[in-house]
Design brief:
mainly beta, about 60% strand
Length: about 240
Amino acid sequence: MKKALTIALVAALAGGSVAAQAYQQGEWILRAGATTVDPDTDSDDINLAGDELGIPEGVVAKAEVDDDTQLGIIPVYMLTDHFGLELLAATPFEHDIEARGQGAIKGLNLDAGSTKHLPPTLSVQWYPRGGKDGWQPYLGLGVNYTVFFDEDVDNELKDTLKVLYPGVDDADLDLDDSWGIAAQAGFDFPINDRWAFNVGVWYIDIDTEAEITVKSAGATAGKVEFDVELDPWVYNVGIAYKF
């Protein structure tokens, strides 16, 4: 992703000085490209101990969530020459989740599960060069709603739970949806009067409560709940079209 950002910047600088790309009130801008969600994960201890589950103290882990890249589709409507309203949208992101052992099981890292999510983010943007030709930097501030779906517990974690919990034969994962703020920065470098290279970055506050339910013969045998802060950096490298 860093290499792609560098290539896009160099290419845009090479062509941007001679092309026009003024943004004006009432225009639409459609950006599309490779959008990467890179979580900066911090989680509570996943405490597998407790009387309800019959597991000895010290058997805890923390969640770690990997990154994913999808197609970003990002429309903007220019409210004035200097202010726009943007919606960050994309095809669904899918993330693998790892449980990293702590305490008595430090070093035991398990494939814990996976989830899909959509993080639509609505932002008000400020274009300091709005109405002027040339490159168009912008800053934005907005609100994010992240919906999680297709949560799944990996077989590796299920097999481990079966050892820890005699009689357990299955497990489910559930993640709460999240509301949070988002901040962004980016720029468009013009190729011609309509097309431009785009590079953008967001920081999004995404927090969720996770719940693992262990089951025995189809009945609930116990639950483990823990908070996870995803707080991802989101990067987009692509093109923009003004109409």
